[in-house]
Fold:
Amino acid sequence: MSILEQFKLDGKTALVTGARRGIGKAMAVALAEAGADIVATSETLEPHGSEVSQEVEAHGSRFWGYACDLGDRPAVYRLIDTVTRECPPIDILVNNAGMILRKPAADHPDEYWDKIIEVDLSAQFVLARGFGRGMLERGSGKIVFTASLLSFQGGITVPGYAAAKGGVAQLTKALANEWAGGKVQVNAIGPGNMATDNTPALRADPVRNPAILSRIPAGRWGDPRDLAGAVVFLASPASDYVSGTVLTVDGGWMGR
Structure:
């Protein structure tokens, strides 16, 4: 197999969570460009006619869309059952969906902490376990988590998010330790500061925005499409000997 052929995903089916917009949408479209059919989910994703479905189908890939609130554990179990019943076997799971709630730690309420841990960490494990079983039975599969720079750093006013994303990095390694021998590679992507719907306040802040940009050697905020190459790599045969890694795509932030 030539090196370019190793990046092709023809005949594969990828489930991408949080795929309605931003990073998840960019990842879903990138995987479709590489040849994969896409199962997408987000809390408010329409089953048909969404922007992400149109872009996926424009590349000739099939698309299934499901709405699911990852903060609702029974809904996550229903999603696993529905996808297993209605879609082809999942070859690639991109555990991307997440949320962030900001408040100083001394005033950070229980409901913020509980919601973030459930959505950003617990649901990630439930989905990985649910679809990972089938991958292990078939003897092949790829799981890609969306980690964060706060998998390595503490952040400010986001204790729940930092704890959850630190947990995602460790969950990536824990699953990789158990599943690499079954030919299921588990890795994560750690995006840098991205221009998405989660960051308009930071990008508009006259103090924080220049401070952030001064720390990024690339000198700009990331675009979700900057993650396209990383997710295709980690979902493809090109990464068959990559396991338990958090690949940062951050414009050089972690190198400073």
In short: The chain is about 40% helix and 15% strand. The two ends are 38 Å apart (CA to CA). Helices lie at 22-33, 51-58, 73-86, 110-138, 159-179, 200-204, 208-215, 228-235.
